[in-house]
Amino acid sequence: MPTLAVLDASLSMLVTASKEPGETKLSLALQGLKKFLTHISQCNKLELLSLAAFSSSFDVVFPFSRDYDGIKRHLETIEPCDVSCISVALSRLQSYIYHEWGHAENCQVIFITDGSLGFGRNSMVAKLASNQFSFNESFCFIPVLLIDPSEVTYATSIRTYNRMVELAGQGAVFSPNGDLTIDTVMSMFHRICEVYYAPFTGTITCGCLSETISLCPPPQPAVLSSDTVGRSLQMSSNLKVIGFVQLADLGNPPLLSRHLIVPRPESGLSVVPGDALKSEASTDEDLSIDEGKIPSFCVLLHASLKVKNMAAFCQVADDRFGVIFSRADNKKKSNLMLGLLEPDVPDDVQMIMYHQFNFFFYQVTNNIGCLSPSRNTYGFQLLKT
Amino acid sequence: MTKYSKSKHAIEMSKAKTIFLLDHSTKTALNPGSLVDLETRSRTGIPTENVAKPVWTCMLEACLEYSRIVWDIYPNHCFIRYIICDDDALEIGLWDTASQNVNHFMNLLSSVRSASSDSMIGRCIPAALDSLSEPTENEKGGKIKNECRLICIGSFNDDKHVRNLEVMCQELLNQKNRDIITSGKGLAITCLSIIFLNVYPDHFQVSKVSEMLCVDQSLQTYTDVYSVRAGNLSNFMTALVLKHYNLTSTTVTGIPMKEEQNASSSANYDVEIFHPSAAMEELIRGDVAGLVYAVKEGCEYRTATLKWNTPRVSINDLWYCSSAYRIAAVDVNSRPSSCLTNFLLGGRSVMLEMPKPGGSKMLSHMLSSHGGEIFIHTLVTTRSILEDPPSISEGAGGKVSDYRIDAFAEIMKSCRLAPFSSVEKEPLSKAYNKIERYTTFWPITSSKSYMAACQNIMGIFPNVIVKENLSEEEVNQCKQVIYNFMGMENRGDPLPVSNITSARSKKREEHYKNLFTELEQYLRAHCRSKQHHRVLDCLLECRSLAGEKIDEKGVIRANTDSPASPPLAKKAFAVTQGDKPISLYDYWLKNVIEEQSNRRVELVGRIKAGEGIAKLYQNLESERNLVSQL
Lengths: 385, 630
What we know:
Chain A is of the alpha+beta class and about 375 residues long. Chain A contains ten helices and 17 strands. In chain A, the strands form four sheets. Chain A has a seven-stranded mixed β-barrel. In chain A, helix 1 (about 25-45) packs antiparallel against helix 2 (about 70-75). The radius of gyration of chain A is 24 Å and the shape is elongated. In chain B, the strands form four sheets. In chain B, strands 10, 11, 12, 13, 14, 15, 16, 17 and 18 form a nine-stranded mixed sheet that branches. In chain B, strands 5-4-1-6-7-9-8 form a seven-stranded mixed sheet, sandwiched between helices. In chain B, strands 2-3 form a two-stranded antiparallel sheet. The longest helix of chain B is centred in the N-terminal third of the chain and has 25 residues, at about 160-185. The radius of gyration of chain B is 40 Å and the shape is elongated. By secondary structure, chain B is of the alpha+beta class. At the A-B interface, strand 7, strand 8, strand 10, helix 7 and strand 11 of A face strand 14, strand 17, strand 18, helix 10 and strand 19 of B.
């Protein structure tokens, strides 16, 4: 998920935190964001982040990139301006997200503010009350309120932002547990990382061969629009390879989502290309060379699939399957990818839209066959050699 | 990622059961509908009379085309039936997939006889409602919403005629639902869309029936009335099928085709196809400001234009598609359509590109055929967060250069998947079992495995051992491999272990010792049948004869040993005859003799003699004694 961190750079952020003299709300926010960026650079290395600041205007400080150190440096350049205009910020950030990502990717917006909602008719409270406010785009709205329970506007702010999250449809409001101190702010950002940025670690198993892996981006529970019940489909942490097919026979099946398979994430090897690796200390460099020289099953699988133009079928949950294949981008770098197939829908749920797997055919020798003609029975039989 | 969804009702009705009530009365059967374009040559120069298709023919052609499009795109999901409203009231088609095809319907239509004198639509409505309350093949066994469509096509007298039919329909529907509730049999019709299509001949100036649309919320019926000229009926029905089944028309432009006569030049043709609208709506989630919709000439619907992109793509790329839907060619018999269809059925894929507002182009869709049917795949064109990922060789394990890629490729070939037949039980577990067998004790690099280094000498040994059971011949072949290695060791032949870095400092005897240790671990991991045990026993005997002590604790384990291999079974073995250890030659001879003796009946003399040499001429001694006594 691409993430946009939006920081309130209005004058009200310069208020000193009552329980933490020496720190303003803005400085607490910057420290929290730095901790957040450190977490991302360690655990979600392929996350794309952008930084923006708003007051009466909305400015993109750093466009979407993986240069977390660059974003950290630009944090220092944010200067407070004037009043906070929440509605302006929200509408501008929506157009920015749409411009960058269209409707396909679900962005996460971490909206850091001190809870001030404006005054009079232009305040968010008034706008929500008169139903003048709505979201045009779909995104995950994560308001982070740097507000002390002793403040007068505490309850109103929390309530208003909760209402906005409801309107957005996804997300949650975060506020410090207790008084506004450096510790509570840090633990709040830690909670955000746990909920929204927990990396996915699992294993890939091919018979007796296995390896720990991480998936990037972490798979989200999928909700089928064809499912009238609206079940949320989870996946297990083990990808079990069932067998292999030729890519030409696979026939470009529709995929629910694609994920990069990163082998042995605990090895600590930096997977960000170029500078990030070189800037590591020399002792780490020794470690990274050793890790690169320890054989990895994923590398073997990737090389074999690429050489033979094949893909591996794997089971990711009881009723969910995926395809593992080698993918090369335009610059000739190739990777191992997992594509998740849409699962079957049981008989008791009326299927009113297309069903992806029914369109999935392939050719075996000269016999044209159809996979999964009946529901709920994904069966695979191996070719008799 | 959320998917685009239209209004729930539109989606649900798009899969509704449909019954056509076709009015086969003299009004439709005998009235001339539209003129047929005929080129005639008459010698006398007098223009011949024009031939006209009756309204009935126009109706049937339009209905069959409607049905063909539906069956091409939704073969097992959408069900259509006809009721020919004449004196015989013939019902065509059933709610099962076997009858839902054009050939079947045309065969049944051949039994339609003479037209009735009056319109019989009213009398056929009860039969239609009876059929609609039966479940289709897909609807059996479950409480589902039964939403249906009734299309009445004929030449109606006036608005009053239509209104009477509508009222009759609503009353009969009400009654039918009440009967179903009381009797408990059948599916109550929850929503009925009634369409009256008045077809009038081309030469009529004005239609006697006016178009209208009304909704009756209480009875859950939606009534549409249309009035169409016979000549325009085909186009109209095509627009109707697009609306009913939520389909979109796309015109593929710029297809280069060569004429047979002019083989050197090629011209660009257009081919129009129909497909579910969702194939375009998926794209709308991206940036589709450039998609051009134009109203097709002479038709009431719009068609999107996508340009053919010369297929330079390799079939070995996996494109990121978000959906795939079947297509139906609009003009099936036209030469450009059949040319494109044959091209696709030949296995080639076609990319379609869409113009973008800035003047650039973007590949948006792909046409390809699977299993004899043609599909349109919607490509995901939006920016991905996986842009510019690091290469896998920059990560863990990326610097190793001796992965056993070819050997793993052999495993992949052996474990290829295929569609399962319903006879096969639990095919998934069978697949897992096979891949587990093939990957038991399988080092992923060749630099530490002696067996991998000697794979030329091993021959078919690894291929055979991974099987569930071994035949007698296979057991012997495996034993032969072991004997070969023993022979090589005795002769002092070097093993081809130059790739193994740790082997360089070791002596030849150590190489063989490591090889046999690895072989033993391998066989122990694969001991799943008696035959496998025999091969293992053979190896253990050979090693013990060579004087090697078998000490489980001292067994050298390779670094890349499979963690899933079972612990060593405690098995001490020695080959003795009596109490003395025997030589390999004696042991081999003993085995050969045993095998051969099993093939024939033993000589009686030998059996009687037991162990030791059989004494010949036993009676000679006794005779000599007898003679000497005399």
